[in-house]
């Protein structure tokens, strides 16, 4: 029984074999990559831009820093970090999904951001960087899709420099009962239907709603970060806790 | 969330100014890649400006290290426009500055020097005559508002002092202070005499 638990994981509300999750998640993002940005704006009413703004404000990125925007998707955070690190710094846009990376690369090139950005297809559980080599790591709306979150957090801790910080922006749990009911109705009734109409893909957006519910709440994720070795961990809730920004330091 | 919206709007406004007024970008060159944090104690709000040489980022809820950190109240904010007032505000305890004073002065000077030629910028949309007329009307309207404000203040002051007698005239206040000081010194003298007699 123990063996069986270790080899299975969640994919939304379904339980699948751990080895399957990566390809299932990959299918979801291959499917939504082309319309990812427009759907983000549409489904969050543009609020995701405010959540990301606050993430940039908390990142403490300065000139010359080496920043990893993990699961960076279409590069919203990378675009900001690229402007902040200047010519002497570097931003690495990392994603496990090559379709998302391609969309991100095209978008950032169209914005004229080319000098200090690298695009690397990578798995968050085995980051391809030496120990103590990055100043800041951000992972926005990506951690819930990772098969083994603890391993990913340990991997991030390993590659961060002492003094470096990790920021996890992710959907979380709201304490407000009324908001919670409204959010559930929106997630399971409106969101998949909008996904079907706009992106012709209701399944991916059903997975989005389900994966959010299966993601650890604020305190659990904070504890997971501490177990991975992070210190001074804290979080701030956005929009009543629908989204939370966790921050932890490596010393 | 409101703060994020406000800082996003402020960021848009500052960056619009940077494109419209190249002199602002020149004045801010010394602030490139430096962070100026501002904490307003009465609003319990911390925000920061981070200029990268081209674009200015405005952060809300900023609690990180900054090259210069100013802590002040909302009332003193308008006085920061004058760089020469910085040291006076620090000495009077109205402003606390931690870090590079030069950075604060640089921002203060850059925004104080800002002289936006609104007519020039609006002329692209309204034409030269229309833009000039609109700007002139706006200036006149502003002058009239200031004049009305001043006159209403005077009327209100006179009403309170002379008609309703709910406040006193500054001269009466001065007279009262002088009399109180005189009484205080007389009392001190009397106290000394009593002490001398009782010893």
UniProtKB/TrEMBL annotation, chain A:
Residues annotated to bind S-adenosyl-L-methionine: 74, 95, 123-124
InterPro entries noted in UniProt: SAM-dependent_MTases_sf, UbiE/COQ5_MeTrFase, UbiE/COQ5_MeTrFase_CS
Keyword vocabulary terms for this entry: Menaquinone biosynthesis, Methyltransferase, S-adenosyl-L-methionine, Transferase, Ubiquinone, Ubiquinone biosynthesis
EC number: 2.1.1.163, 2.1.1.201
Catalytic activity: a 2-methoxy-6-(all-trans-polyprenyl)benzene-1,4-diol + S-adenosyl-L-methionine = a 5-methoxy-2-methyl-3-(all-trans-polyprenyl)benzene-1,4-diol + S-adenosyl-L-homocysteine + H(+); a 2-demethylmenaquinol + S-adenosyl-L-methionine = a menaquinol + S-adenosyl-L-homocysteine + H(+)
Presence of keyword Cell wall biogenesis/degradation: no
Name of the top EC class for this enzyme: transferase
Gene Ontology BP terms: aerobic respiration; menaquinone biosynthetic process; methylation
Annotated pathway: Quinol/quinone metabolism; menaquinone biosynthesis; menaquinol from 1,4-dihydroxy-2-naphthoate: step 2/2; Cofactor biosynthesis; ubiquinone biosynthesis
Molecular functions per Gene Ontology: 2-methoxy-6-polyprenyl-1,4-benzoquinol methyltransferase activity; demethylmenaquinone methyltransferase activity
Source organism, top-level taxon: Bacteria
Function: Methyltransferase required for the conversion of demethylmenaquinol (DMKH2) to menaquinol (MKH2) and the conversion of 2-polyprenyl-6-methoxy-1,4-benzoquinol (DDMQH2) to 2-polyprenyl-3-methyl-6-methoxy-1,4-benzoquinol (DMQH2).
Family: Belongs to the class I-like SAM-binding methyltransferase superfamily. MenG/UbiE family.
Name under which the protein is recorded: Ubiquinone/menaquinone biosynthesis C-methyltransferase UbiE
Organism: Pseudoalteromonas luteoviolacea
TrEMBL record, chain B:
Transmembrane segments: none
Tagged with keyword Cytoplasm: yes
Ranges for domain SCP2: 15-111
Keyword Transmembrane: no
Biological pathway: Cofactor biosynthesis; ubiquinone biosynthesis
GO biological process: ubiquinone biosynthetic process
GO cellular component terms given for this protein: cytoplasm
Record localization: Cytoplasm
Coiled-coil intervals, chain numbering: none
Main localisation: cytoplasm
UniProt keyword terms in alphabetical order: Cytoplasm, Ubiquinone, Ubiquinone biosynthesis
PANTHER family linked to this entry: UBIQUINONE BIOSYNTHESIS ACCESSORY FACTOR UBIJ, UBIQUINONE BIOSYNTHESIS PROTEIN UBIJ
Family statement: Belongs to the UbiJ family.
Protein's job: Required for ubiquinone (coenzyme Q) biosynthesis. Binds hydrophobic ubiquinone biosynthetic intermediates via its SCP2 domain and is essential for the stability of the Ubi complex. May constitute a docking platform where Ubi enzymes assemble and access their SCP2-bound polyprenyl substrates.
HAMAP family attached to this UniProt entry: UbiJ
Protein name: Ubiquinone biosynthesis accessory factor UbiJ
Gene name tied to this protein: ubiJ
